[in-house]
Design a protein that fits this description.
ten-stranded antiparallel beta sheet; 151 residues
Length: 151
């Protein structure tokens, strides 16, 4: 199913391999722009222009599975991360997830082992580690915990 969608996007969207310019973002919500392709023509990176200056960025592995997914807000010439960013292993399982506010880690943070078990669970507040941080081994057993709550 995903292959059909990706090929459909390729058929509809004209590939763009040059530098990314933020000078003029068309006011067409959900406009898809393919930024780069793998050697076989499948999509490597695409951008979905949402309302206003918000862009969803998706990168893919050669096997069509999502590598990273997240949103940025265009501020002048800069792309500032916002909201939830997710990364995946090549087999499609979760690798990491973090929250961003104005380009800074702010909220929950978690990583997983390739087998799906948690690796690290923590929290950021305005770019600073805070609260309870827990580290696991690959079997899911807690191996370390510490509390970074200010006080």
């Amino acid at each position: 199913m995903k292959k059909v969608f990706i090929f459909g996007v390729i058929a509809v969207v004209i590939s763009h391999c040059g530098a990314i310019s933020h000078e003029k973002i068309e006011e067409k919500p959900n406009r898809v722009e393919v930024i780069s392709n793998w050697g076989d023509g499948t999509v490597k990176e695409e951008r979905i222009y949402l309302d206003g200056d918000v862009v969803e960025i998706m990168t893919y592995f050669e096997n069509f599975k999502v590598n990273t997914k997240g949103r940025v807000k265009i501020e002048g010439e800069e792309e500032v991360r916002i909201g939830t960013w997710r990364s995946y292993y090549k087999n499609g399982t979760h690798w990491s997830q973090g929250e961003y506010s104005s380009g800074v880690s702010d909220g929950g943070y978690q990583t997983w082992y390739p087998n799906g078990n948690p690796n690290i669970i923590g929290f950021y507040s305005n770019g600073v580690e805070t609260g309870q941080w827990t580290f696991f081994d690959s079997t899911g057993t807690v191996v370390k915990q510490y509390d970074l709550t200010p006080g």
